[in-house]
Amino acid sequence: MTVLVGYVPSPLGEAALRAAIEQARFRDEPVLVVNTSRGDAYADPRLAPEPDLDRVVRELVAAGVPHNVRQLMRGRDAVEEIAEIAETEDVSLVVIGIRHRTPVGKLIMGSTAQEILLRVACPVLAVKAD
Q1: Residue 14 — φ and ψ, nearest 5°?
Q2: For a surface tag, which of 15, 76, 123, 126 has the fewest beta carbons within 10 Å of its beta carbon?
Q3: Which of 58, 12, 19, 64 is CA-nearest to residue 35?
Q4: Residues in a beta bridge with 72
């Protein structure tokens, strides 16, 4: 089994990574870090630059957690990528960061976190940034 974390280079992503490390230690499982972008924009703030991914790897190594990092740009959104990985691989838990949004904002715009919660069959841990 594996703990999958949806990582973005932001305080939400850092909170999700910390929670995934804690859960991986508790469950004695490896962590799969997934960073994704559709690749349709010249600059995508959700796509982690190499120095950020290197720091993530150093943090996982320092924590002593077996890990794998995937950065995907296949023209699909994060929900599709995470749902497919959770469905096709041995994922025990998905960890995501969530931000505060008004109920009206969620109703009109929806949210990636909300879609993941609805589509993924395994348990999902949603964490907020400090």
Answers
A1: -65, -40
A2: 123
A3: 12
A4: 36
